[in-house]
Design brief:
Blueprint lengths: L5 E6 L7 H14 L4 E6 L1 H4 L6 H17 L7 E5 L5 H10 L4 H5 L2 H9 L6 H16 L4 E3 L5 H18 L7 E3 L34 H9 L17 H14 L3 H7 L5 H28 L1 H30 L6
Parallel strand pairs: 1-2, 2-3, 4-5
The structure holds tryptophan (TRP).
Tryptophan (TRP) binds next to strand 1 and helix 7.
Length: 333
């Protein structure tokens, strides 16, 4: 019997994966994959809470699988799958919606934030999004959910839903814990370093994508916003841009902030930005090349996500069956 603890996490295919997705999430997933039984999902059902262009969504989803593998997630040791391929996610989400309160969903900061930004499309899916996320996590009897701190409230709600359900029906769900990695967790926009580097604010060049060419990466770093000072020093309060670049450089090279400060003492921001850009180019080069090769091998990718969905579905079916039975649904023959 495998006694490893379980991990579940997911990223929406609502935009291309960024340096922030890698340093803040996937890199950490790779590290965890040795010691845990991991389910890493591409949450396409979540992505349609915002309008998507179908052909682009399909392309990005496949590319995201290839990039997961290229970043070092071995599909033999991790369950890599596409959420919509495992119908139990949508099924359990419905059940959990009936155990989630309107008031709770109304208090979710992500809902408030997204609805204020997209006032013309405040759909019911956007509102019930956290119940679907709870279903993702609870279906697998997950122990740990590695996430960025913006998702902490959703995992807390997941725990509340699980406990509420368990209080009525007995021990059906494992109550998961969130897990926020310490370092490199928050990569900020290169243009607006007050904001998280996000797939959706590409326009201003604040974002570096995993598949960007060296040329594009170098340009983005050379244009990165800094400050009117000239000293490379870590100070996330008053030197947000430089501190973000230091975080990136540190994550890319393994150098500490003190080492970086020493190495660039007396040098200008120009040299520093070039060094950060080059470190990111070298970090991403093998990932991009590997993903490009994988994307040419459609049969292999299909095999990976098919195998992933089969494996995920088997685990998910067990939980859903138990839930339906507890609820009093007549067992399907
Ligand atoms: N809501 C998460 C995000 O936007 C993505 C997500 C969906 C997720 N389901 C999940 C993350 C389950 C962790 C576990 O980042």
């Amino acid at each position: 019997m495998d006694q490893k603890k379980r991990i579940f996490s997911g990223i929406q295919p609502s935009g291309d994966l960024t340096l922030g997705s890698y340093m803040g999430a996937i890199k950490n997933w790779v590290e965890l994959s040795g010691g845990y039984e991991c389910f890493y999902c591409i949450v396409d059902l979540h992505a349609i809470t915002a309008r998507q262009v179908p052909a682009e969504l399909r392309k990005r989803t496949l590319s995201q699988i290839a990039q997961y593998i290229a970043c070092g997630l071995d599909p033999d040791n991790n369950t890599l799958f596409i959420q919509s391929h495992v119908p139990a996610h949508a099924e359990l989400a419905w059940v959990l919606e009936c155990y989630t309160m309107f008031g709770e969903l109304s208090r979710m900061t992500q809902f408030k934030d997204k609805s204020s930004k997209n006032a013309d499309n405040i759909n019911a899916g956007l509102f019930t999004y956290p119940a679907l996320m709870a279903a993702d996590i609870l279906l697998y009897q997950t122990d740990l959910v590695p996430i960025g701190d913006d998702q902490k409230q959703h995992v807390e709600l997941t725990r509340d839903i699980a406990q509420r359900f368990n209080a009525v029906y007995g021990d059906v769900f494992k109550v998961p814990e969130h897990f926020i990695p310490k370092i490199g967790a928050r990569i900020m926009s290169l243009q607006v370093p007050e904001n998280k580097m996000s797939k959706s604010d590409a326009a201003a060049g604040g974002c570096v994508y995993l598949m960007d060419s060296p040329d594009v990466i170098m340009k983005a770093f050379k244009r990165a916003v800094t400050d009117s000072d000239t000293v490379v020093r870590y100070d996330p309060e008053s030197k947000k841009g430089i501190s973000n670049l230091m975080t990136i450089y540190s994550a890319a090279t393994g150098k500490s902030f003190a080492e970086i400060e020493n190495a660039f003492a007396g040098k200008g921001y120009g040299d520093f930005k070039t060094a950060v850009g080059e470190s990111v180019v070298e970090l991403l080069r093998p990932i991009r090349e590997r993903a490009e090769t994988l994307l040419k091998n459609k049969d292999y990718l299909t095999e990976v996500y098919k195998k992933g969905a089969d494996r995920a579905a088997r685990t998910a079916a067990g939980t859903l069956r138990k839930v339906y039975k507890k609820l009093g649904f007549v067992e399907r023959q």
